[in-house]
Design goal:
With 261 residues, the chain is an alpha/beta fold. The protein has seven helices and eight strands, in the order E-E-E-H-H-H-E-H-E-H-E-H-E-H-E. Strands 5-4-6-7-8 form a five-stranded parallel β-sheet, sandwiched between helices. Helix 6 (203-215) links the parallel strand 6 and strand 7. The longest helix is centred in the middle third of the chain and has 16 residues, at 101-116.
Length: 261
């Protein structure tokens, strides 16, 4: 395995040393195969929000697995889960479950382009939306705003329609919409940046995004792979943006141009 890992975020090249190989976990603690004990501040990158190997969760899993582990067909539990997601996040009307955040972002990008009939998208510096080619543009540099990929193996054509803006930069967004009138299919962002440190959005920034996308019939996509059900039950959109919507305009599900991943 390259670097001894199956995900680049687990590699140790940038910090030195060798990857830690975990043997077991319980609650907030982890033990590696050498018996060293660690306090886990990562929580499996979010899903283990109540701690590892919770007794109640393990009991529920064991009972469910008596029915089988995979059906290759629709099942009752996925419908129950979909109803729970819709109930938790009022702006969601339909749900499609996928295997990863990368797959979710690939799907929503294709959906946005098909719906609008446009190809250009705007993404932001520091926001990570998986390793699909259109998102692998280095953010923040002058070259990046030209849509040139910074990952070897990604052709220029794959990122040609990707516009990159610094996070919280209202002027850049306004310039993009002015110079690409009727061409921008979607704006995609993490509602709170978590892949480049912790960067919260400003109220003016969110206000501008909501207004300018609606005025230009552009979809506004919040990638909540990291924030949904972790920042709060229902995610950052429910936690923060409903306050914004209430100050900008009455919230209307039928006219909202927002997607949540």
């Amino acid at each position: 395995m390259p670097g001894g890992v199956n995900s680049h975020v687990r590699a140790f090249k940038s910090v030195g040393g060798q990857p830690i190989v975990i043997d077991s976990v319980k609650g907030p603690l982890m033990w590696d195969i050498d018996g060293n004990e660690y306090i886990d501040y990562v929580g499996s990158w979010g899903p283990a929000i109540i701690g590892h190997a919770d007794d109640e969760v393990l009991a529920a899993l064991a009972e469910t697995m008596k029915k089988g582990t995979s059906f290759g067909a629709p099942c009752l539990l996925e419908n129950i889960l979909a109803e729970m997601v819709i109930s938790a996040v009022p702006s969601i009307e339909m749900v499609r479950f996928v295997n990863s955040g990368t797959e979710a972002c690939m799907g929503v990008l294709r959906l946005a382009r098909a719906f609008t009939g446009r190809e250009k998208i705007i993404k932001f510096e520091g926001c990570y939306h998986g390793h699909a080619d259109p998102f692998l543009v280095k953010a923040g540099s002058g070259v990046a705003t030209l849509g040139l990929p910074d990952s070897p193996g990604v052709p220029k054509a794959a990122t040609f329609e990707t516009l990159t803006s610094p996070y919280n930069s209202i002027s850049t967004i306004e310039n993009f919409f002015e110079s690409n009138k009727g061409e921008i299919a979607a704006v995609i962002l993490e509602p709170i940046v978590g892949n480049a440190g912790f960067i919260p959005p400003t109220l003016d920034f969110l206000n501008t995004l909501c207004t300018i996308t609606k005025e230009n019939d552009t979809l506004l996509i919040f990638d909540e792979v990291m924030t949904d059900f972790r920042l709060s039950y229902g995610g950052a959109l429910l936690h923060s943006f409903f306050k914004l919507f209430s100050t900008v305009r009455p919230y209307n599900r039928a006219s909202a141009s927002t997607m949540i991943l």
